[in-house]
Each structure stands twice: as C-alpha cells, then as structure tokens.
Amino acid sequence: MYEGRIKFIVAVFIFLLCITAARLVNLQLVHCEATRDQISRTGVKSARVLPTVRGSITDRFGEKLAVDSPVFQLMIRYELSRLLDERFWLANAIVRSEDKGIGLEEAREYWENQLASDIELLDTILEYAEKFSPASLEEIKQEISQINDRMWRLRRYFAWRRNFPNSSSISDFDSLPQRERLAKEAFVNDLWEMKNKWFAVADISQDKIYHAQNTLSSNPEVKISTRGRRKYPYGKTASQIIGWVNPSQPDKELFKNDELIRYKEKEVAGFAGTERICEPFLRGRRGKIVYTKRDRPPKEKAREFGDNVRLTLDIKLQEKIEKLLKDPLRNPNSDKICNAVVIDARNSEILAAVSQPGFNLQNARQNYNQIISDPNKPSVNKAFEKLYPPGSTIKPLILAAALEEGEVGIDETISCSLPADENWPRCWLQRLGSCHDYQFEGEGGNNGRNAIRGSCNVYFTKAAHRLEPRKLQKHLFAAGFGREILCPIDFSLVGWKVENMPSEDRNLPESRGIIWSGYNTPEGTSFEGIPPLSNGEKRWFGMGQGNLRVSLLQIANLYASIARGGVFERPVIYSNISEPLRKQDLGWSEATVKNVEKGLWMVVNKIHGTAYKQFKGSELMELDVEIYGKTGSTQNPENALFAGYIEAENSTVAIAVIVEGGQSGARDGAPLGRELFKVIEECGYFD
What we know:
The protein is α+β, with helices and mostly antiparallel strands. Helix 20 (448-454) runs parallel beside helix 25. It holds the Pfam family PBP_dimer. Keywords: Antibiotic resistance, Carboxypeptidase, Hydrolase, Membrane, Protease, Signal.
C-alpha cells in the first residue's frame, strides 16, 4: 500500500517537473526576445522633456524689446507664510479657547509659544529677502499677503463643502457667525497646497544670487528657484506694437498636432501685438531625451529655439517721441492725446509709431481688465487703427489727381475771392475778410502750388469736384487709402511645418479707412469692391472732410510716396520676416511731382506758408536739408495735424502727427511737427 502511494507521489512530481521544463523552454525559445526587452527596461528612466525657449523681439538695431530671461526667486511654504496672516492666529486661538475653556489671549499666546521657532525663522527669511532682493520689506510682505489670501480662499471653500455638503451656494457658510466660520476654517489644514507647494516671495538680484544661495540653501523651508520669465525692458514704449504673453494661449489650436510644439498647461503664448502675430516664429520646439538601455547612451532630440523677430522700429527714437508728446515745455498740447508715425521713405520702414496712452508691458497680464476698460483705450494702436478726417493733409494728393486727370493746369488759378459761392466751403482766409487771390498776387495767383502753400479750401474743393467720383476714389486707393497697407508677413519662413498656418493677412491690426459715401465696410480687398462716392460729397473730400476717414499711418505713407517721386510702397514693420516690398508707381508725371513738392516746400519755407512762422528761425533751417510739410485742421471731430518729410544727403524721413482736440494745424500741428523733426535729427537721421 505504501509502495503504491510512493509511486503516485513520484508520478505527480515528475508531471510537475515536465510542466516546469516545458514552461522554461517556452520562455527561452518563444518569448525570449520579449522577456529580455522587458528585463532590460527595468530601471530605465522615463523620457525627459526639455522646455521651449521663446525667440526675442528686437528693434532695428538689435535692442531687446521682449526677451526670455532667467529669474531667481525666493520660495517659501505656506507653513511659514501663514504666520503673517492674522486670520490664522485668530482662527486657531478660537479653536483652542473653546476646546480648553480659556480666553483668546491665552490661547493665542499658546500658539505663539508653539510656533516660536517658525516665527523666528520667518523673521530671518524676511531679513535676508530684503537684503538680497530689489524689493522693499513692505513689497515682500505684500506678496506674502497675496499668498495668504489665496490660501484662505481655499480654506473657506473647503470649509463650506465639508460642513454644507448639500449646499448650492457658499452664502450658506458665510451666514454663520464670524467666530464659528473661523473655527471651521481653522480645521481645514490638510490641503496639498499647505504642505507641499512652494510660493514665490521675491525676486533675487542676479548679482546677489550666489550669496543668497549660500545663506539660505541649508534651510528646508526655503529654496531659491530659477525659471524663465518674459521681460519687456522698455516698459510702456511701443507697448501696442510689441504686445505681451499670457497663459491663456489664444492660438493653442495652431500647434495641436505636434507633440513638441503644442502648449502645455500654464505655458505662455503670445496674447497681443507682435507676441501673438508672430507666434509661429517666436515659439520654440521642445527637446526630448529618451532613455533606452542602461548600457547605451540616451537618444536626444535637440530643442529648436524660437526665431527672433526684428522690428523696423528705432526704440530709442520711439522713446524720445513718446517723451516729447508728454513734455509741456515742448508740446503745449501735452494734456491732449497726441499720436505720431515716422517712416524711412527710402525703404518704407516704420521707424516709430506712437499711440497715446500706452501701458506697461511688465504688468499687462495683472492689469488686463483695467487696460481694456480704460475709456482712452490704451490697448488700441491709434497710429494704425484709429480713423480721422485728414483735413488739409490730403490736399497734395487731390492736386496730383486733378493734374493727372487734366482737370486743372499746372499754372491754372481757381479764384478764392469774396463773396463765397453758395453751398460751398469757405476758405479760412475769407473768414478773416481776405483771400488767396490777394495774398498770392504777383506770385502766379491761386494756382495749385500756392493753394497748398496757403491751404486754400476753395481751390481744392473745386478741383476735387471736377474729378469723376470713381477716378477720385481710384487715386485715393492707389495712394493707400481705403485699404490695409502694412507689408504682409512671409509665413513660409517659419522653421517648421505648422498645420493651420495663419493666412497672409495675419498682421498688426490696422484700419482700412473710408473713401466712399456711407460707413458700410466692403468685403474683399480689391478696388472693384469699393462702394461708390456720391457726386455731392467730392467737394468735401477735396478739403479732407465729409465722410473721408484715414489712419495716421496712411497719411505718413502718402508723404513718403511723394518723397519717392510718386511711388507707393507698403510700409514695413517686420524687417526680417516681411514679404518683398510691393511697389506701385502712382503714374504721376515729373511736372506733377515737382508742382506738389514745390507747394509743400513753400508751406514751410515761404511767407504765407501755413507752417512758415513755426519753422522760421528754427535750428532745423540751418541744417543741410530740405523740409516739406502740410498743416491740417478738422472739425467734427476737431483735430490738428501736420505731415511732411525731410530730405538729407543720406536719408529721407516722412512724418505724420495729430493732436486730438487741437484747433489749428498751423498753431497746434506745425509746432509739434517741428519738434518731432528735431527729435529725429537728435537721433542722427540727418547727419
């Protein structure tokens, strides 16, 4: 009997041994490769992603306007920051006083004794923070106060949810007596943010980072963190053009199909201005390190830094102009909104585009609601986007159109004598009991160039009225009015393929203006889609009034076109990513160009020119340059303008400036234009 049992046990043992052997053979022969791979992966680190590096925005000379810079920050935990929160002390004192049946003062004293070492540590940290940071102690405490406010909002929320689980409104919790509320909030002390999260208290001066690290690094409750931050060294200067970044990522769909470009949570992206417009260029591609086997080096996909975007702006010139417009000693209208555009007429590059008021890019994210609700609209680039009647600054174009269409002759005069024709605009001299016939008697009379010189409304309203409406519109459109004119960005230059690439009209916002009757904006960009101009409104267009609306950029570009001898070019704002310049000869004859230029020269340089008194005796007149200009005044709305250009040996610079609420182009616009030319000269453009 025993022998049979032994044989049975041996048989079972042999059977199990065979199964084990078969399994071993299967592992060796069938799953060998997979098993080895699995074993080889054991202990291999997971892939590490390298952060993106955003490209910089620079001015024409390489000056950094927006740049990612390392920031060193002193970080503490909430367990320390709470010690500066009076709510923390009161709440915990209430809990202990009720638990032990003692007074609040005694209860508070207990907690102060319990946390004495932490209080001493916090005092030490604050002392060092003030020593190593550019911020004052008051500013550092304000940062800590904001941390405590955020954390107490969490306490309040969780106290509500835990004590009123079926409540739909936190007002149920707020209706409790304050003492009871604080006691319940004090019991919320188990949140992850309270134990593990670090909070930034202050930036550390870069020149003191070494000492700060040596002094503070040994303390487990404090650390110094290094991270990248977008910095805007020029603050308010050119703020509407540069723009800023924000974690909201308005273009997040742009890169959604690329693992190494698409946005991660809390990553910043361009939100406004150039930062957003040029996001495909500025955004970098993340790198990635993939660890394989322990005996092999990791595979690395290198980061691709974002491309730099170079503006045509001269940031120093822009800064000087912004200061000029606010300086009451140089600009008597500094209390009014003044805007300006400066263009290098040789290559159509925008040197400055000033829009008031601006805003500080360094804190734009924090002050966003304040910025967009400001009635003065600081976020709007008024130099490009706001529309104005051009007033008399449009008259050189009206003269050129009338000459080219044969509606007036080079030396033909149009009488400005009294009395004024019924239902026609009066010339400003007629309101003074005089006329341009008398003023220019002996100098050819009230011909086209003298009419520019004296800004005669009668001449230009009648010259415009002689033109067929469509022909007048055609000349306005060819010169850049009634359409967007900024040179497009060449998105084919982006260093990697991006799906859903923005179309070529992605550019800084600008207004096309109005060169038709009515205010309906037409679809499309061609001249054929422009609505008609009524025959009765042509006369008002001749003096830059009526329904005619233009941007300051368009006015400055008109004068750059005149300086080029009647050649239109689209103005450029991005020097390294713009499409090739699109030139268009306006078809003006040499005689037309000379006649228009002569009139603009006399405005500044001859008696009875509307800007003559403002430029006479100026140091500008002693330079080896030629100055051309035109004043402009408008009503409904009331503004004062000046536009013109200076020709020097190696440069030609065109300008347009406006004083919103200014009463006279001669008295308000011309002096500001003169000072603007001086600033340009100070920056070396006429050397």
